[in-house]
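Thread: quick sanity check before group meeting

JM: Hey all, I'm pulling together slides for Thursday and realized we never actually wrote out the predicted structure for the chain we discussed last week. Dropping the sequence here so it's in one place. If anyone has concerns about the input, flag it before I start.
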Amino acid sequence: MDKLPPSAGHAAAHPQSEAAVAAAVVSSMAEARAERGPPLVEMRDISIAFGGIKAVDNASIDLYPGEVVGLLGHNGAGKSTLIKALSGAYSRDSGEIYVNGELADISNPRHAKRYGIETIYQTLALADNVDAAANLYLGRELRTPWGTLDDIAMESECRKVMGRLNPNFRRFKDPVKSLSGGQRQSVAIARAIHFNARILIMDEPTAALGPQETAQVGELIKQLKGEGIGIFLISHDIHDVFDLADRVSVMKNGRVVGTADVGDVTKDEVLGMIILGKCPAGAIPGPGAIANQLQQRRPPATLS
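JM (edit): ok, ran it. Output follows.
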């Protein structure tokens, strides 16, 4: 067999080295998963279509206790639609959801709450004209034996849960419309975890917040991680995701491009996943990775 020129030899070796790196990444992540046991939640092969257009196409993601998974992608990538299938806001056309290793039946938000899944949307869904305690128990108010609202008991419970999250919070009597962005986020998070949420979905939690309030929300997320709560963090801010997340999954055009530990990829590589659909060697490629990369990850044919 004729010898390949140096440039051709290098080109032939490059896919092989990429394949070796990718195989090592897959192997190490598989070992880590085996040690951690079943995921807190796993979404397998989820598809959702609107009017014949697939907003989510065969997407799979998972989440472990005490972990933050950042879900990134441009507008229309499908990340919010995928997560709304988990929260029960959207019905999926195909695919399965597992919670603690068991198949879950989630077709509306009430079902999701039964599995300990709570969602904090970007709008927070707070009642601006009432105080923190009233928001905490919105729709689930405590009542006295005479059927009236038990404001004392609700405020007492509110003080307990807010004491865990934000010990400096003092404005229990003020309507939430007068609170800062970070304080409003604290109220929304308190409402979610007070009713035993184990899986928390946070949609753009730091959008429109200043640096100090963003740092406050970051501390809340780290505290929730320490309590074993799993968090899906939907964000456009790659810096926030790298600061707070353990893993990142990127979507493009309704499909998962890839998933990686944040320590195994750079911000530039994640930007390449978001914009180009290019999956780096440190990530596990998904169905949305560009086709030639999926070919490169396969072991090259030997020359005869």
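AS: nice. The two ends are 7 Å apart (CA to CA). The first strand starts at residue 41 and ends at 50.
JM: adding both to the slides.
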